[in-house]
Write a structure and sequence with these properties.
Layout lengths: L14 E8 L8 H12 L9 H27 L6 H19 L5 E6 L6 H10 L2 E8 L6 H15 L7 E4 L7 H18 L4 E7 L3 H5 L4 H16 L6 E6 L12 H10 L4 E5 L8 H17 L4 E4 L7 H14 L5
Parallel strand pairs: 1-2, 1-3, 3-4, 5-6, 5-7, 7-8
Bound molecules: the ligand C=CC1=C(C)c2cc3[nH]c(cc4nc(cc5[nH]c(cc1n2)c(C)c5CCC(=O)O)C(CCC(=O)O)=C4C)c(C)c3C=C and fe (ii) ion (2 copies).
The site of ligand L6N33NVT has 24 residues, from helix 1, helix 2, helix 5 and helix 10.
Catalytic activity: heme b + 2 H(+) = protoporphyrin IX + Fe(2+); Fe-coproporphyrin III + 2 H(+) = coproporphyrin III + Fe(2+)
Pathway: Porphyrin-containing compound metabolism; protoheme biosynthesis; protoheme from protoporphyrin-IX: step 1/1
Pfam family, one: Ferrochelatase
Length: about 350
Amino acid sequence: MSDPFDIDPPLQPLRTGILLVNLGTPDALEVGAIRRYLREFLSDPRVVELPRALWLPILYLYVLTTRPAKVRHAYAAVWTEQGSPLRAYSLQQLAGLRAELARRGHDLTVELAMRYGNPSLRSGLDRLREQGCERILAVPLYPQYSASTTATVIDEIGRQLATFRDQPEMRFIKRFHVEDGYIDALANSVREFWQAHGEPEKLVMSFHGLPRAVVEKGDPYFRDCMQTANQLAARLGLPRERWLATFQSRFGRTPWIEPYTEPTLRDMARQGVRRVDVMCPGFVAECIETLEEIAMGVREAFIEEGGEDLRYIPALNARPDWIGGLADLVEKNIRGWA
Ligand SMILES: C=CC1=C(C)c2cc3[nH]c(cc4nc(cc5[nH]c(cc1n2)c(C)c5CCC(=O)O)C(CCC(=O)O)=C4C)c(C)c3C=C
Ligand SMILES: [Fe+2]
Ligand SMILES: [Fe+2]
């Protein structure tokens, strides 16, 4: 700490830090680590909006005693040498963004944090503070806004800052669901895939689901997803009958937003569709929801119903055009700062 009573304090340019934030994922491929992760994630009232007195007994007595062992198999199917895919790809994005911003001549500090698990939001804010950042742009890596993802990142940053005496200035990116850098990178990824492997009959854009009741109460997530889907289809020049948007990863028994991904693909196969491609534009980094649920599970379901092939188009991960799009987004949002 500099001398708080210095009577001739030096004027220094204020340093800007960028905090990339994703959901988080278990630290290890072990039931205990998966349980710790699910406990933190599913205890968040922004994620499960049921009254605590009702939800916590279900969470502790049922979900946390049965689900960790079940999803361990899903994680085992996609685990990498760098750990969980979500962490591995997020670290690649961090390295890519640092390099790209430096290449563009910016002197910025870039760190990665996870809303649940590690590296924690607290550790990310501490690392930025230790490096002298007086200004922080938080970039939740969710293209579409939802209270269950984006808002809870902002909430938690606020709770952490409540313990800082000398707080940094903060800016937050709310969404980037129709930003050119994002839509263009998605469109390029599809075009490249089709150039290499040929075009399917239909393209399915599968987004993470959300309880229907949450959208009815005003969460703009469904609308954001549809805007992304429409923009991407337009950018690809796809006629309306060649694409559809669906929702995956339903959790629990209440109705979620529809159409559901797996039942829709089963229906399509039964109705005679032979070749479909599925992409997950809402996930900028590969994770169990894309690699295990879609590329493995939903693919098997489609083939079981008579489909010939379901190909999964990879997430943006560390594609150079996407890292460029992310750098554009950062530049746009630090204007006036650095
Ligand atoms: C229980 C309610 C859940 C809501 C609401 C929800 C919203 C939501 N989630 C994502 C992104 C991801 N979710 C991931 C995994 C995951 N999601 C839930 C539950 C809800 N998600 C659970 C219980 C899990 C863990 C796996 C499982 O037990 O099935 C992941 C991947 C994490 C990983 O480690 O790979 C992502 C990413 C969004 C975008 C979203 C709302 C729009
Ligand atoms: Fe989720
Ligand atoms: Fe899932």
